[in-house]
Amino acid sequence: MTRLPLARRLSTAFALAIAMCIAAPAHARDRVTLQLKHTHQFQFAGYYAALEKGFYRDAGLDVHIAEGTDGNEPERNVSAGKAEFGVGSSSLLLARLAGKPLVVLGVVFQHSPYVLLVRKSEERPDIRSLKGKRVMIGSLTDELTQADELIAYLNKEGVPPKSLVRVEHSFNPDDLVKGKVDAYSAYITNEPDYLDRLGFAYDVHSPREAGIDFYGDNLFTSERQIAAHPERVRAFRAASMKGWAYAMANQGEIADLILSKYTRRHDRQHLLFEARQMEPLVQPVLVEIGYMNPDRWRHIADIYADLGMLPRNASFDGFMYSTDPAASYLTWLYRSLLAAGLLLVGGAAVHVSLLARERRRAQESIRQGELRFRTMFEEAPMGIALIDSASGQFKDINPRFAQISGRSPEELKRGRCDDITHPDDVASEAARMAQLGAGGITGFKSARRLLRPDGSVVWVDMSIAAIDAPADAAHHLCMIEDVTEKKTSEALIWQQANFDPLTQLPNRRMFHDRLEHDILRCRRDGTRVAILFIDLDQFKEVNDTLGHQQGDVLLVDAARRISACVRESDTVARLGGDEFTVILPQLAETGSVGAIAQKILDVLQAPFALGQEQAYISASVGITVYPDDARDIDDLLKHADQAMYAAKDAGRNRFSYFTPALQVAAINRMRMTNDLRSALKGGQFRVYFQPIVHLRSGKIHKAEALIRWEHPQRGLVSPLEFIPLAESSGLILDIGEWVFKESARWASLWRREHHPEFQVSVNQSPLEFQREGKGYEGWLAHLRELGLSGQAVVVEITEGLLLDASSGVTDKLLQLRDAGIQVALDDFGTGYSSLSYLKKFDIDYLKIDRSFTRNLAPESSDMALSEAIIVMAHKLGLRVIAEGVETDRQRELLLAAGCDYGQGYLFARPVPAEEFNAMLVAQSRALAAAAAQSS
């Protein structure tokens, strides 16, 4: 056998060693596990793409992707050897410096997705407002999840964790929606989609606002894996990053892949939302996926040091995986040279061969890099164009740029960038483009409109950046993102936030903004501003009788009529319900204000056509003037409101100017309302009783309970004064309960001592009767405690309640009937009742209003109406009580007409319960004496 020269044999062995080192395995693929930190979602799209597109298979790997149950599971499993690779957050740095030999292979999210979501308020967002509030930030038992960077952010903003009420994280955004917590740590790629679909308004606070910029998801492994399987680690990293590049360029395809093979926990819309939100975090066009910067890791370590979680200037050597092939090659080369010894000739030959090979490899790397970046350019989800700075001509355009602009690349290259810009936006950008061309700035961002050939407008967010080049070949890079849908949504949200959706008039918010602006201008010009508060009279009756849909038609027409009465520069707003306001700015004198108010009153009196019906309303207008009546906006509006109520109290269909006397009256009402709040507890109320007399026998069969207020300073206050205040303040509910219990107590006594069928009538305010979810269960229970039947009480209601056809009113009337409590319709003949209402509802008594009784005379119209009411009531099986009986003549006429009962000063005024009891005792004695005399 011929022996080869030693140098040749060494060279052959050397080449064989190289081949063995670089040869890919041809046998079965290595099985490895990638541990995710959460359940399957687009957050891990690159790994799914690498597996399903065969990138792992081509690298000789059989990869199993395991879902996670908590954020620290990848760190635990990789450290324990249960998984070879994992996906972790920046808290990996803490684990490394705690002694765990973990190594980050590459960064996927250049910016962390963690944010703090806070319920939106009318005030300007301020993270410091969270002090003392309930928040969910990470786990209370394991801080190395979402808590680290957010707690660093809160500390930096002056909100230490001890100032918060920490709540264990449920990872259920419903807790924020339902108000269980005031703030909620979340992924900007995930929870906002859920909240947006619910229409829940929220503010986003990101640690980046305070300069705390952590990496997001990181691919990592252990030092043990790198030492034992360096080629496998390198191959896994390269295939993973290739998968991420593919996933970010083919988002729709990967979303479908996730739905078909991994999870249907989220719908396609959510997965694409997640993908869009990931683009500015991953930055696939601007940064090579996997790239990481030691300075960024040092920044993160400094933040941890500020939190007391790491020592200052801690070393994390070996934490970042080195992807430089030259470093590996040199290490291998030095070891090979040592093995080769002093074989200079052979070593030199090998060295030259390797240099040539490295040259070829570098050229191939450059070519592959150009191909990769060209692919990224072509497949980028945002539009990218290279533009000649001098001429404005397009030099290179990716497909997305052409798609957004609505033109082909060839069309774009034949024109200039100004050709596709909306004409109204060209001038605004000219100055900054000139600065860019002169080198004054290196780039800028703006929102701009593009005009498509079909005339449609596209809103884009545009980024312009200069490219280093000789002055005669200056170019700039233009990147655009279609935000038309976002702009449309913002415009819609702004419209909804500032304008009434029914009338399209400014709402309360916009009204305040315009009033503030007009007052500032008024101060500058020395003019005046008038404010008109307009309340539609009788609108509720229209709404109740014809329905809310026709009521809306009336409001729209009323808004149109009011707007036609003022100038275009004036503001007409709808504050809500049937309340409108008008701002009349820049008035040199106020003499015309009254004429405008009267014009509004006149146009509103004209009939409103509502389907087949016509409706008639009027209005009450309050007027206040700045600066004559007040210099503060709140005072101005308060005074206008007071003037409007003065017009309403004066008879409606009129306007009233604010006067100091109105303010005095308002203050008196406020003080009386305050006194009213303590009157019930202070025992200042009394129940008076007025007898209801059976006209034929002259006996007292019933009594009406009437409340009186014995004010400690004012004396006896009329119910006409305090009942409206009690209704407007809601105190009428508690007062009504007290009156009922007092009435039931006396009814029990009088049924026991005077007559077993004696009845007491109790008045019910509409507010008491109509309140939601509150029936008469409490009343019935109280009657049972007293041993009284329901027939001991009569409930008096007004006609207007019968107009409310809601099931609540019907249910309450049925509840009264079932309990044996009778119902009286008070002031009958003055409202809007009809025979159909009397037939539909269970009514026992009609009370003829005193306005009919007062002028009773034979052959009079009041007599005819009273007789008609009595006959009608009897035909329907109802009994009649006439109010306001003051003379014997009135009693005789009513008796002759068949009226059942009478009530009025002829029989007795309302008296305290003790006096009424004495009256009954006297009646009993008189009846007993008469019976004895007759016998």
TrEMBL record:
Signal peptide start-end: 1-28
GO molecular function annotation: catalytic activity
Domain EAL: 669-924
SMART domains xref list: EAL, GGDEF, PAS
Domain GGDEF, chain residue ranges per copy: 527-660
InterPro entries reported for this sequence: Biofilm_reg_signaling (IPR052155), EAL_dom (IPR001633), EAL_sf (IPR035919), GGDEF_dom (IPR000160), Nucleotide_cyclase (IPR029787), PAS (IPR000014), PAS-assoc_C (IPR000700), PAS-like_dom_sf (IPR035965)
Highest taxon listed in the record's lineage: Bacteria
UniProt keyword annotations, A-Z: Signal
PANTHER family referenced in this protein's UniProt entry, alphabetically: BIOFILM ARCHITECTURE MAINTENANCE PROTEIN MBAA, DIGUANYLATE CYCLASE DGCP
Protein name as it appears in the record: EAL domain-containing protein
Species, as recorded: Massilia atriviolacea
